């Protein structure tokens, strides 16, 4: 079946639809190449690199209209590392989680396994649905995912009504940040990764943190709790204020993310990026709703993500479709491996042209007809 050749006339201009690593704009790569001799392979303690870290932090602050007093903090390790950072450095005693997919579950497990913390409260929902946080006495950190990358479910970012005074809200924006609306005043920590909407490589975590969250980090550090140096949030704060990271970062990741943010800010910032992702979402969900063999996996339209779309198939094997697409240079449409459904998953980040999403649906139809 992989011998099926899709006509060039209906193929997308760029066939990358991965949910992370995501499409990197060729213009960003060209800009990196132009500075490669003076930037790549240089010390991250020197101005050449620190200036790019500063550009990245400024870009994030501008893009998300960061409120006064909030700070952009970054360090090595990606979101998986940040879950451990938050476990050691932001939770005093007890946390509560809204878990409705693989990524929310991983953070909850990290906290559950921590011997110095109380058993967390976890509100769960099956794949394709959403779980929500609820006020609970004694909880000092609430945590939820804005966009569940594994299922394509997205929820609004809102503080927990009735929560104890001083309780923090942590929002996992790994794949939602840059494609979905957010008011940072509604959360204390909005953390994301560069290899999603920011169109870069992986290796960093970035967090926009409120004064209360930063104060909490210093408070816990001062309490004497053992915190591994690599996972020390206070170290990350202090290093970020110096426009650097504690360990050597991937220089290309820093540069490409900064380049992407400059591009998106020039286009119109978060409002523009949300419109663009929403346009792509309307294309793919509209196509699936009219299709004889495809349907949106997320049945509630209000929960359907404009960052990552998941589409179920009936009467045709989605895995075979993905293989044929890949043989035709249309890549990374496979579903999340642990979800185990007959479906495709498509990134709708701002780097992806809505016209390419429309072309993708035409290609899927072309392949399905021949299967």
TrEMBL record:
One Pfam family here: Aminotran_5
Pathway, per record: Amino-acid biosynthesis; L-serine biosynthesis; L-serine from 3-phospho-D-glycerate: step 2/3
Molecular function (Gene Ontology), one example: O-phospho-L-serine:2-oxoglutarate aminotransferase activity
Cofactor: pyridoxal 5'-phosphate
Leading EC class: transferase
Biological role stated in the UniProt entry: Catalyzes the reversible conversion of 3-phosphohydroxypyruvate to phosphoserine and of 3-hydroxy-2-oxo-4-phosphonooxybutanoate to phosphohydroxythreonine.
Catalytic activity: 4-(phosphooxy)-L-threonine + 2-oxoglutarate = (R)-3-hydroxy-2-oxo-4-phosphooxybutanoate + L-glutamate; O-phospho-L-serine + 2-oxoglutarate = 3-phosphooxypyruvate + L-glutamate
Family per similarity comment: Belongs to the class-V pyridoxal-phosphate-dependent aminotransferase family. SerC subfamily.
Entry annotated with the keyword Transferase: yes
Protein name: phosphoserine transaminase
All residue ranges annotated as the Aminotransferase class V domain in the record: 140-330
Keyword Transferase appears in the UniProt entry: yes
InterPro entries: Aminotrans_V_dom, Pser_aminoTfrase, Pser_aminoTfrase_mycobac, PyrdxlP-dep_Trfase, PyrdxlP-dep_Trfase_major, PyrdxlP-dep_Trfase_small
Keywords: Amino-acid biosynthesis, Aminotransferase, Cytoplasm, Pyridoxal phosphate, Pyridoxine biosynthesis, Serine biosynthesis, Transferase
């Amino acid at each position: 079946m992989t011998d099926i050749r899709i006509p060039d006339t209906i193929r997308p201009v760029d066939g990358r639809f991965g949910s992370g690593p995501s499409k990197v704009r060729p213009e960003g790569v060209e800009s990196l190449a132009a500075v490669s001799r003076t930037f790549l392979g240089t010390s991250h303690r020197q101005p050449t690199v620190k200036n790019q870290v500063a550009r990245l932090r400024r870009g994030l602050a501008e893009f998300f209209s960061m409120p006064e007093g909030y700070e952009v903090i970054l360090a090595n390790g990606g979101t998986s590392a940040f879950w451990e950072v938050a476990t050691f450095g932001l939770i005093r005693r007890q946390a509560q989680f809204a878990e409705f997919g693989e990524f929310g579950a991983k953070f909850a497990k990290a906290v559950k396994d921590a011997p110095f913390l109380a058993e967390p409260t976890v509100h769960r929902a099956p794949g394709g649905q959403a779980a929500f946080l609820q006020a609970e006495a004694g909880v000092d950190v609430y945590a939820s995912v804005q966009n569940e990358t594994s299922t394509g479910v997205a929820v609004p970012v809102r503080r927990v009504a009735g929560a104890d005074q001083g309780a923090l809200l942590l929002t996992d924006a790994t794949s939602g940040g840059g494609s979905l609306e957010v008011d940072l005043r509604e959360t204390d920590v909005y953390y994301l990764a560069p290899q999603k909407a920011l169109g870069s490589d992986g290796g960093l975590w970035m967090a926009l943190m409120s004064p209360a969250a930063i104060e909490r980090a210093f408070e816990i550090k001062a309490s004497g709790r053992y915190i591994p140096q690599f996972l020390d949030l206070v170290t990350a704060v202090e290093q970020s204020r110096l426009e650097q990271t504690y360990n050597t970062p991937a220089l290309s990741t820093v540069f490409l993310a900064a380049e992407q943010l400059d591009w998106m800010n020039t286009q119109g910032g978060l409002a523009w990026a949300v419109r663009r992702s929403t346009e792509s979402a309307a294309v793919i969900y509209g196509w699936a709703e009219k299709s004889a063999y495809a349907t949106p996996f997320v049945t509630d339209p209000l929960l359907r993500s404009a960052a990552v779309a998941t589409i179920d198939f009936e009467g045709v094997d989605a895995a075979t479709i993905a293989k044929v697409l890949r043989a035709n240079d249309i890549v990374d449409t496979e579903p999340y491996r642990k979800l185990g459904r007959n479906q495709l998953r498509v990134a709708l980040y701002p780097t992806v042209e809505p016209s390419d999403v429309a072309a993708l649906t035409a290609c899927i139809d072309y392949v399905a007809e021949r299967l």
